[in-house]
Design brief:
The complex is a heterodimer of chains A (307) and B (274). Chain A has 307 residues and is an all-alpha fold. In chain A, 79% of the residues lie in helices and 0% in strands. The longest helix of chain B is centred in the first third of the chain and has 37 residues. Classes of the chains: A mainly alpha (307), B mainly alpha (274).
């Protein structure tokens, strides 16, 4: 068990290092000199440009910049924004709670509706209710999130005027964005849960349970479900990543604050340190969650613990 | 194999195929079907509601929405299909090589794929298209890169299960080259799962492509694609609901049809499901 944990931890660190490297070099391929963004087209003397380059370490050769960046990242320093000089870490941490709440609420919506629909669909398999749920969940994963967002705004903000269309503030500002992402997430989870249950139903141990005369109800809810929900745990990790990334689009549609919004603005303004920092933040969360998922597997499923 | 397909499945397959055929036809010969020219701006008919001479209404420039939706199918299909051919092809190749070689090469390639996976698809595509600049071609590359990992993982898994079978050993023992084993003996077995992934991949590539162009990272050509049309519609949402609604509906119907066919293909090749 300890060996498994250590091994997973090591792999996660290696992957995180690779991600830092990839993002660093990818962003340094960006056309245009970051200093031009800094001076924003103002006429400045070459001395000022040289001084700024020195300040941001841009006068160093690329490999030195890389090593310096690596060193800083491990001390929790993501550098400063080229646009407003604010430390990237401060900027991200100020925005992170908004994104976290949005992600958690949409995750909760996805899990509640997704698992419910998935289970109902599998219990009533190949009947009308199952067909209906399958169709709904296909729509759920096929609709562009920004379109769902616009439709919800049309219905609840423009026509009914129940909820605000955009902005930040109390809970009522969170409902539409979270519902938008929840619709997609529910579709994803429902399909996954249905598929997973239908796979377990065909396993020999279920036939044995039925053969010994156990009522279908307890076969389903006590035995099949327990086993079927194990793979769904992996799905939760992936879902979290999807939702965090989906926040980029959703926060922009609803003009919300958040990490996604920061990323988009930074990408459009070519504010390298911010883009770098934000991607690394998202990637680290993703890696951490997947590490936890992997480890929780070992706790939930004894077969994996022994392997 | 499964029991007979249900009536529901058969009906849905028909609807999906018809829908896709329709949109492919739109993409091939938009000029024959669209009622107006996509660049025609009618100053007398700005933000007209659906009905009358403009079935789906007009946008802020007086362009016919139905016409723009018909023309937009071309970009959507081009982006979806080329991203899957490019990204799926590269991903499948990486996965096949990793699975077949094993050992060190496998470890290096799969850590590379793991790295790509830590950056969620849309974020990766967003960054890549920002690096490359907005254009249709760069959009395709950005979307392709984000679908490499899933293809690589599945193909690697497939190759791992096939490569130790006796017929591969037989091929190897008579001196068949690695390349030949990979392409003529292993590849055909992976074809069906590639087909399923490719189908579903086209759907998600279309979604991602339209998302990127909705965010302003698509091509800025004269004829807008569905994503940028939606983005225009968002600005006029309280005045003209139709501008954003219909292109979104087009994306949804296309992707739903593709995903449904993907599901049915999956259940046709995987007898355990369903």
């Amino acid at each position: 068990m300890l060996r498994t944990i250590l091994y997973r931890l090591l792999v996660s660190i290696v992957v995180l290092l690779c991600t830092i490297t990839l993002v660093f070099f990818l962003l340094h391929l960006l056309p245009g000199d970051p200093i031009n963004i800094k001076i924003a087209g103002n006429p400045v003397s070459p001395e000022v440009v040289a001084k700024l380059k020195h300040e941001f370490g841009l006068d160093q050769p690329l490999h030195k910049q890389y090593l310096q960046y690596l060193g800083k990242v491990f001390r929790g320093d993501f550098g400063k924004s080229l646009v407003d000089n604010e430390p990237v870490m401060t900027k991200l941490m100020a925005q992170f709670p908004a994104t976290l709440w949005l992600t958690l609420l949409s995750m909760a919506i996805s899990i509640v509706f997704g698992v419910l629909l998935g289970v109902v669909s599998a219990v009533y398999r190949h009947r009308s209710l199952d067909h209906l749920i399958r169709l709904l969940s296909i729509f759920g994963i096929s609709m562009p999130t920004f379109w769902v967002a616009i439709l919800l705004v049309l219905l609840f903000s423009v026509n009914l005027q129940w909820l605000p269309a955009s902005g930040v503030g109390g809970f009522q500002y969170l409902i539409l964005p979270a519902a938008t992402m929840g619709i997609v997430g529910s579709g994803l989870i429902a399909r996954m849960v249905r598929g997973s249950i239908l796979e377990v139903v065909h396993e020999p141990f279920v036939r044995t349970l039925r053969a010994k005369g156990l009522p279908e109800r307890s076969v389903m809810y006590q035995h099949v479900l327990r086993n079927a929900l194990i793979p769904a745990v992996t799905m939760m990790g992936m879902l979290l990543g999807e939702l965090l990334a989906g926040a980029v689009v959703i926060e922009s549609v609803f003009a919300r604050q958040g990490v996604g919004r920061v990323i988009l603005d930074a990408i459009l303004a070519k504010d390298l340190p911010v883009v770098q920092g934000a991607i690394l933040l998202t990637a680290s969360i993703y890696i951490l969650v997947n590490l936890l998922v992997d480890l929780s597997y070992a706790i939930i499923d004894p077969r994996i613990r022994q392997a | 194999m499964n029991a007979k397909r249900s009536l529901f499945s058969r009906a849905m397959i028909t609807v999906s195929v018809l829908m896709i055929a329709c949109l492919v036809l739109f993409a091939l010969v938009p000029g024959w079907i669209a009622p107006y020219s996509p660049t025609e701006m009618n100053g007398a008919a700005i933000l007209q509601a659906p009905g009358g001479s403009h079935l789906l209404g007009t946008d802020y420039f007086g362009r016919d929405i139905l016409t723009l939706v018909i023309y937009g199918s071309r970009d959507a299909l081009i982006i979806g299909i080329s991203a899957v051919l490019l990204g799926g092809g590269i991903g499948a190749l990486i996965g096949a090589i990793a699975g077949y070689s094993g050992g060190f090469i496998d470890a290096v390639l799969m850590r590379l794929i793991d790295t790509l996976m830590t950056i969620p698809g849309i974020l990766l595509a967003l960054t890549v298209s920002a690096v490359l600049g907005p254009s249709k071609f760069n959009l395709i590359i950005a979307v392709s890169i984000s679908i490499i990992p899933s293809f690589a993982r599945v193909l690697r898994g497939q190759v791992l299960t096939i490569k130790n079978r006796t017929f591969i050993e037989a091929a190897r023992s008579i001196g068949t080259s690695h390349l030949r084993i990979l392409f003529s003996h292993i590849a055909p077995h992976a074809f069906s799962s590639l087909l399923v992934m490719g189908t579903i991949g086209v759907g998600s590539a279309i979604l991602m492509g339209s998302g990127l162009s909705f965010l302003g990272l698509g091509s800025s050509e004269e004829i807008p694609d569905w994503g940028s049309l939606l983005s225009e519609g968002r600005s006029y949402i309280s005045m003209a609901w139709w501008i954003a609604t219909f292109p979104g509906l087009a994306i949804t119907l296309l992707v739903v049809s593709i995903n449904f066919l993907g599901d049915e293909l999956q259940s046709a090749i995987g007898p355990r499901k369903g």
